Amino acid sequence: MTCKAAFVFTPDMLKYHFSEDHPFNPVRLRLTLDLLEAYGLLEQNDMVLPRAANMEELLTFHEERYLQMLKKLSEPGASDEGAHLYGLGTEDNPVFPEMFKVGSLVVGATVTAAELVMEGKVEHAINLSGGLHHAHSAMASGFCILNDAVIAIKLLQKKYNCRVVYIDTDAHHGDGVQWAFYEDPNVLTISFHETGRFLFPGTGKVAEVGKGLGYGYAVNVPLEAFTEDESWIKNFREVVYPIVKAFEPDIIISQNGCDGHFYDPLTHLSASTLTYKEIPKIVHRLAHEVCDGKWVAIGGGGYDIWKVVPRAWTLLWGEMKGIKVPAKIPEAWIKKWSAQSPFVLPPSLNDDPSELPDIPRRPEIEEKNYLASQRVLNSVLPILTGNIG
Amino acid sequence: MLVRRIMNKEVVTVSPEMSLWEALNLVKSKGIRHLPVVEEGRLVGIVSDRDLRTASPPFLQVENWDIMTGTLLKQIMHRDVITVHPLESIDEAARLLYEHRIGCLPVLQQGTVVGILTQSDILFALVELMGVTSPGTQIQIEVPDRPGTLADITDIIKANGVNIVSLLTTPGERPAYRGVVIRIKTIDPRKIIQQIKTAGYRVLWPENGGSQHDL
Ligand SMILES: [Zn+2]
Ligand SMILES: [Zn+2]
Questions:
Q1: Tell me: the pLDDT tens digits for B51-96?
Q2: Chain B residues with CB inside 8 Å of A23's CB?
Q3: Residues of B in contact with A225 (CB under 8 A)
Q4: Does ipTM top 0.85?
Q5: Which CATH number applies to A5-385: 3.40.50.970, 3.30.1540.20, 3.40.800.20, 3.40.309.10?
Q6: Count of CB atoms within 10 A of residue A68's CB?
Q7: Element containing residue A110 per DSSP (H, E)
Q8: What 3-state class would DSSP assign to A122?
Q9: What is the pTM of this model?
C-alpha cells in the first residue's frame, strides 16, 4: 500500500549551519536528498516548498526578548554582548549569518508539514531539517535555536483543536518539547533516549510524568548506554502501542534523530539501521490505526553524517511512502560521494552483522531497559485509560 | 546549606495535657508523623505517630475507651528531645538523625520551636542538590588526592569556553584518589574529555563490558 506524502524542503534550509567544523552539519541533508534521488524515491509531486514561520507563531512559545536577541545577532557585524545569557554565541550554538531567518524557515517547514496533513492534502509529511527538540522558550540549547515541534503543536492546538502525540526517538531526551507541554493533558510527549546519567541534557527520567493537569501525559523511557536493536524495538513497541491507543490522538508527530546508531560519535547507544527501519514502521501503522494516518515526521540529531543519516532517513521516507526500498545502496551515490567521505560508505541500508559491536553487558542492559518500560506502563497507563486506583 | 532553608516552618505543636485520642486524630488529619509537645512556650517533649499507636489498645472496645481519652501525652512523650538550631548545617542535622536513630528534629531558637526537620526533608534537599537543574553532560573523573587537581580540570573546561552547571567531589573508588563529578553545559564534551585524559586523569565514561564504574 502506498501513501500520499509530502517532502517539505527548500535549499535555503541548508543554511542552518553554525560553522565549518561544527558537528551539526547540513551536508547530511544534501547526502540524504541525493540518496533518495539515486533510489528514485523523490518525485517532483512529493516536494512542497515551506513558508517561514511569522513572529506571531514564534511567540506562541518563544519569549520576545529572546527573539529580539536572535534578530540582533543575525545582523552583520553585531556584537554578541548578552548572547550567552540565552545560550547563544557558545561552543554549542555559535552565531551564524541570518540565523533568525533560517531558524524561522525551519520552524515554518514543520508548520507547513502539519498544515498539509490537517488540510487533508496528504496523509503524511516530513521536514528533515526540523526536530530541534532542545530549544527552550528563551534559551538555545544543544544545537537548537527555535523549537519547530513545539510551535507546530501550538498551531495544531489553536487552529485545529488537536490532541497531539509527540514521539521522540533521538538519543538525547526531548526536553524542550516535554517542558513546553508538561502541564498540558492534550499533548502526550513520549521520549526514548539514552539515560541522562552521563549524556546531555540529563533529564528524561521515568519519574518525569507531567505535572498538574498534565500529570500522566509525559512518558520517558531512558535506555542504558549500549542498548541494541532488539531491546530498543521491543520496549518501544510495548510502551508506545498501548499508550498512544489509550490517548486517542488526532495526529502524531515523530522526531527521528538517528544519533543512537552505534557509529554516532556523540552518544553511547548501539542501534543499527534496523532500529531506524522498525521505529517508523511502528509509528506509521499506529497513525493509520488511531488517527486516519495523520503523521508528521521531523528530523533531529545524527552526527555520523556519512554512514548513518542518509540511510536512516531514506528508510524513514520509504516507510512514509509505503515503498519497500531495496537494501543495496545505488552505485551512483557511492561513486559520487566516496571521494569526499572520510569513511568507506556502506554498501547496504542494513548494517553488516559483523560490524556490530560486541556488548558483554547485554543481559544487564536489557534487564534495566525492561524494568524502565514496565515502570512507565504501570505509572502512566492507568491514568490514560482512566483506571486509577 | 543551613537547616533554616529546608525546615518546615509551619509546625503543629501540642500541649502535654492533650489526650492520646486527640493526638491520634490530629496526626491523621494533618498527615504528619511527629508532634513536638510545648508547655508555656517551651519544648518539653516529643511524640511520634508510632508512639501513639504503641500506647493505643489493639481493639477499640468500650472498656478501652478510657485508655484513649484518659492517657495524656505527658505520660507517653519522650522528654529528652534532641533538637537543632536553624543555623546548623544540614549535614550535621543528618548526622544527628542517623546517630540517634530518630525521624525528626525540632528546630529551636532561643527556647522556642521555630520549625521541624524530618528525614524526608533532608533526602529531598539532597535530591535537589544532586539533580539536574539545567541541561548538561555529566562527566566523572578520578583524580589523585592532592592540591591543584580540581583547578587543572576547571582550567581545561574554561579554556573550552564551556560553563560548569554543578560540581561535586566524592571519596573515590580507590584510596588516595577522589572522584569529581561535573555537569557541563554542552552536548559535545569530546574535546574536554580528551584534554582531561591527556592531562593524565582517568575519565569514567559508559562502558560496554566489565562492570560500570561509579564515583
Ligand atoms: Zn501511510
Ligand atoms: Zn540527539
A1: 999 988 877 677 778 888 889 999 999 999 999 999 999 989 999 9
A2: 188
A3: 206, 208
A4: yes
A5: 3.40.800.20
A6: 11
A7: helix A99-118
A8: coil
A9: 0.88
